[in-house]
Fold this sequence. Notes:
Number of domains: 1
Order of helices and strands: EEEEEHEEEEEEEEEEEEEEEEHHH
Shape: globular
Structural class: mainly beta
Helix content: 10-25%
Number of strands: 21
Radius of gyration: 20 Å
Strand content: over 45%
Distance between the termini: 51 Å
Amino acid sequence: MKxxxxxxTLRLNPLPTPTWNWLHCNDTNVTVPAGLSEVEVQEVFPxxxxxxxxxxxxxxxxxxSAGPAFDKYLAETGLSAEEVxxxxxxxxxxxxNKKIAFNANAEAGxxxxxVGKGASLTIAHFFTARDFDLAGEExxxxxxxxxxxxxxxxxxxxxxxxxxxxxIDMPGDxxxxxxxxxxxxxxxxxxxxxxxxxxxxVLTGTALGLDGDKATVQIDxxxxxxxxxxLDINYVIRHRGKYTDTKIAANGVLRDQATKIFRDxxxxxxxxxxxxxxxxxxVLLMNPGIVNKSVPLILCAEEDVEGTHGASIGKISDEELxxxxxxxxxxxxxxxxxxxxxxxxxxxxxxxxxxxTELMQKLHPEEF
Length: 368
């Protein structure tokens, strides 16, 4: 079988409303394999959780960050999902903790989290991949080598509290699609904390429908993109309920010849009266060879709303660099310090102490 016969190219992480094509911000083309095998996951569940396997046809059809083309592709692969349920008014005693280590090309996983009325759950996903080679595989195509993916769906019932922590630490020769979607009912609160440490070509983000009145979402993102790595982020929040609120904050560092695009969309749908949204990004550019694109977008079909957005892009000043170097700190060490400080600030917002400590141990093993 020829490599091109088993490949598909999909347009992922699409903007809800396209802008000029020449800006190359509307979406990203990704070559995917024809089939996917299920990744093995090392996982720990709270005692209060109910778990079960769910067929592809029964997975909730919610909007996701990678977009409809990828959702259709996943459905066609027939990959099932692991469903985790927390019953009404149950406060999970510990986090769902998953270590997802991809061991081969075309591996993927899917998870559905259903959090009942007045219940709470923290979810921690730690993504990595070992070094594997496809040279001996029949029909191997360099464009498709080392493609892996994980699909996460969150259904938050009324007054539910859900925290999702995503930690991405991938080798430089892997394309990773981290696809997240969900819905929040009345007075539900969803928090998403994403930390990107390494990754050659990473597509991530979150799509969430604030479907009930007073539903809220808070997203905190920290990233370091270096060498020739590429990071593609797509956040899409749909306000449908009244008095809903979105807060998106991203802090990152770009180094060497890194490439990054950050799409963050707040969509005020007609009827979401008195809703608010704020999206912010702060980017530190370390080298002249960087490509940085930020696309803060607010869509508004409702008059009685308040939305703000902005992006701050800067670099270390010559005065600051001189200050550090005069104290024996090299420019390379300054870059490391700046990168770590931004990641540490995001990690510090993880409410679950056990998850926060585990990640800090990973980032600063010398301190433990």
